[in-house]
Each structure stands twice: as structure tokens, then as C-alpha cells.
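Q: C-alpha cells for this one, please.
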Amino acid sequence: MDFVLEDFLFAFFLSLLAGLSTTIGSVIAFIVKKPNPKFISFVMGFSAGVMIFISFVELLLNSISSIGYQLGVLFFFLGMGIMFLIDVIVSHKYEFEDSIEILVNDNGSFKPHLHHGHRHRHRNGREKKKFKVEKTSLFIVLGVFIHNFPEGMATFIGTLTEIKLGLLLTLAIALHNIPEGIAVSIPLFIKNGSKRNAFKWSFISGISEPVGAMVTWLILFPFITPALLSALLGVVGGIMIYISLDELLPASRKLGKEHHSILGIITGMIIMAFSLALF
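A: Here is the predicted structure, written as C-alpha cells:
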């Protein structure tokens, strides 16, 4: 399998596009003052459905067909193990400083509010539904940065293997990063009132993906072979499944009701199934 410089540049460009989707989420957070949590729940479920379907139908299957069942599955679980170690070593969860709640109004929109221990109620006495959102610190942005790093590697490797696969992974990761950009920006904006600062940290959290692609490029360039790419496809599949099960699905279920999440998952899988059939 021979590659030219243009192949690497295009793979890097797609990882850059996927990573900087966090800035799209940041812009949405400022333009749409009260983003609908039900819609975000659906989008995150959709992204999980896309990732899960691609991982099993394309990534793992291609890995197994190229290097055999045992090795393909071994590298798949290696990818999950890598993400688990990152999870254990580096926190990517928002930690409480001052507790912030997202109050969900009757029309389903977000309303950020600082929590001081008292209970918030409607005028008619009904308690508003609450979603706690922890404030983002520099350590948390660093955690998000490190967790996004393997996604850049995934997009880069997928694109080198097959452009269609790279485009599908870019779509899936971008859909995941847009809500993440919203999640990073809103707490920072509430904390200091600076849109510029919130946008900056949203950008930094996403730039780790092209950095991951660049590091992968530098490491793989002298050793790249079809067998190595096939093994890495298994690793990428494990990474995508872990992200879907550990991050996207719990967040999707928490933001919306169960049917918002599952409808997003089913829709994402159906669209990916048709996309693979067509292309």
C-alpha cells in the first residue's frame, strides 16, 4: 500500500475538521442562548449510533478480515484498554467548584443558574427539572484534550485506510464534538462572563485531535504497512466503542428522556447503514 503526501495531508485535514467542531458547539452556545437539551440528547445518541455501527461493521470487520479473528479482536480490546487507562489516569469529568445547575424550562430550553443550596420552583410550586453541570477548570480542559487525542488518531488512520471510512469517522466525531463544545463553553462563560475565553478553551480542547493525527503521522510514516493499518483499525474500533458507551450514551440519557437517546442511536445506525450501502 503506497501513500503520497496528499494522502497524509487529507487525513490530517479531516482530523482537523473533526477536532475543531468543538468551536462550532461554542458558537452555537452563544448564538442559541438556550439550547434544547432534548435535541442535544438526540445528537449525542445519533453520534453514538454512528460510532457503534462503524466500529463493528467497518473497523473491526476489516481488521478481522485482514489479520484474522484472534488478532483483530485482540487489537479491538487493546483500544478499549487504552481508553480505560486514560480514563483512570486523567479525569475528563467536570468537577464541582461552585455548583451550577441547568434548569430546564417547560419549553425544554436550558437556563444556567448558580446553585446556592436553595430549591428552585415554578411560581405554581412545581420544581424545575435540574441538570448539574460542573464548572470547567484548566485541569478539566486538559483532561478533555487528552481524551480527544485518540479521536484524531482514529480519523487519521481511518482516512488512510479508506477515504469513505475517514469521512464517516469525521462525521461521527464532529457530531460528538459539537455538544462537547457547548458543554465546555457554557460553564466557562457562566464562570467569568467572557465569550472569548470560553471560545479559546473550546478551541484548545478540540485542537488535540489534529495534534493526535500529527503524532500518529510522525510515528507511523516509516513503518506503515497494510497489516499495521489493519491492526490499528481494530484499536480504533475499540476506542470508538469505549467513547460511545462511557461518554456519549450516559450523557445522552442524562440530558433527555430515554426515547430521545435511543431514537438518536437507531437513526444514526440507519443512516450509516444506508451510507455504506450507497457508497
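A few notes: The two ends are 22 Å apart (CA to CA). The chain is about 75% helix and 5% strand.
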